[in-house]
Amino acid sequence: MAGFGQSARRHPRSRGRTWSRSGPDRATLGIIGVVCAVAGFFVLGIILGPVAIVCGWLAMNRSWSGTRSVPALVAVVLGAIDTLLAVLWLAGTATPGAGLF
What DSSP state is assigned to residue 14? Predict the structure, then answer.
């Protein structure tokens, strides 16, 4: 009974890792963002555009400063363009008798 509950002293948690490793890493989030941004140009741009922006922003570690990966930056830019085009398309179809195209 003397050793009950003392296993944490033998194997302490590393100091540099304070988050859960079960989620996707930043490189994966950047690639997911790029895929969502490219797919958003063809289908569901109003949904996939903001998803691409969020994935790219999280892949850039929620900061504009420091080193940024290229897929993360591409995901944010293409997601913003995709969202803007989807909003313009929806605004064009909302006006009576006139469309954007």
Answer: P
Cβ partners under 8 Å of residue 87, min gap 6: 46
Q: Find the length of the chain.
A: 101
The two structure tokens encoding residue 26: 């930043």
Q: How is 29-70 classified by DSSP, letter by letter?
A: HHHHHHHHHHHHTTS-HHHHHHHHHHHHHHHTTT-SSS---H
SS3 state of residue 73: helix
Q: Which residues, 6 or more positions from 24, have their beta carbon under 8 angstroms from its beta carbon? A: 32
Amino acid at 3: G
Q: What mean pLDDT comes out for the span 64-90?
A: 87
For 19-67, write each residue's pLDDT tens digit. Answer: 555 667 878 888 999 999 999 989 888 999 999 999 999 988 877 777 7
